[in-house]
Amino acid sequence: MSMGGSNIYKRRITLNADIKRRWVESLRSGNYRQGREALVVPNRILGDAFCCLGVLCDIAAKDGVVVRQAKSYLDPEDHLDQSYKALPLAVLQWSGLPISGRAANEVIIGDDIFLTTLNDNYEYDFDQIADVIEEKL
Q: Under the phi-then-psi rule, with left for phi > 0, alpha for psi from -120 to 50, and beta for the rest, what region is 16?
């Protein structure tokens, strides 16, 4: 693994199998309205909108790993670990997703393709993203 090149980011991710299963089920459940550019965007009328990583944060919140604030997730043990766009470190550690030099919202699934890019730019729906997670993570 080369620290100077991008190979460090292309290693196989060791996502916790139970968390992966719950994440995929949640994405396919129809219980989450899909949003873009933020983990969660509150909306009292239409219901909150989540990006694919926001769904993972919501599962982590249900497990007590983080606490949901209005627009972000907060690690109750480390109040500096709060984010509205990137996964909090506590969620990365809990889930088994890699902690790397890249931003925590850039969960790579191969050849510089990120889950956030699929969600925000290519507008994959949650079913398509669940398929990618099952296949690549």
A: beta
The domain tally of the chain equals 1
1 in any annotated domain: no
pLDDT in tens, 25-45: 999 999 999 999 999 999 989
> Which tokens hold the place of 57?
């944060």
Residues 6+ apart with CB under 8 A from 109: 115, 118, 132, 133, 136, 137
Residue 115, burial from CB neighbour count under 10 angstroms (0-12, 13-18, 19+): buried
Determine which of 12-16, 17-21, 47-51, 109-113 has the lowest per-residue pLDDT on average: 109-113
